[in-house]
């Protein structure tokens, strides 16, 4: 509603709609011409605006079956020799940088850990074999990157 319009004079309004769908902004603008006392309806067809699906990003870890796996400081609940972690929260062009993967395994009463710092881009897949009890993977703060 606009107040104070002069009778007999034409007015133009730009009406803009922005829909944030799956982290992607979709925008449509329509121009409406009106005169004082007129009423118009503006419709936007939100359903026809195709949202691009978020890419699947995955990290596969090969670890000892009873190892504990921590991603970004949080222990995961997954178990087994092969652990698959997938997400669609990363949007095209985004990446997790400096993402810490820690694997802890107890052998003969001693806890061994290996830490890898990775960069993982949206839509990428990374596979790592991490066994803290093996000296070749026991490097702390090693890095891996997939873009």
Word description of this protein:
This protein is mainly beta and 147 residues long. It has 2 domains: 10-48, no CATH class; 57-146, Immunoglobulin-like (Sandwich), CATH 2.60.40. Helix content is 0%, strand content 52%. The protein contains no helices and 10 strands. The protein has strands at 10-21, 24-35, 57-62, 68-71, 74-75, 82-87, 95-107, 110-121, 125-129, 142-146.
Name a few traits of the molecule.
rod-shaped, mainly beta, 2 domains, Immunoglobulin-like, three-stranded mixed sheet, five-stranded mixed sheet, 147 residues
What's a concise summary of this model?
The protein is an all-beta fold. The protein has strands at about 10-20, 25-35, 55-60, 70, 75, 80-85, 95-105, 110-120, 125-130, 140-145. The protein is built from no helices and 10 strands.
């Amino acid at each position: 509603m606009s107040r104070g319009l002069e009778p007999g004079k034409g007015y133009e309004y730009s009406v803009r709609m922005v829909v944030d769908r799956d982290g992607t902004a979709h925008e449509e603008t329509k121009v409406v011409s009106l005169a004082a006392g007129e009423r118009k309806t503006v419709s936007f067809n939100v359903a026809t605006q195709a949202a691009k699906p978020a890419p699947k990003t995955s990290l596969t870890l090969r670890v000892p079956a009873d190892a504990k796996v921590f991603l970004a400081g949080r222990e995961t609940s997954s178990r087994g020799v092969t652990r698959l972690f997938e997400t669609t929260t990363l949007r095209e062009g985004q990446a997790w940088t400096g993402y810490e993967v820690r694997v802890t395994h107890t052998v003969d009463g001693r806890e061994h850990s290996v830490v890898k710092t990775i960069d993982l881009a949206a839509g990428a897949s990374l596979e790592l074999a991490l066994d803290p009890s093996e000296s070749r993977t026991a490097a702390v703060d090693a890095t891996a990157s997939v873009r």
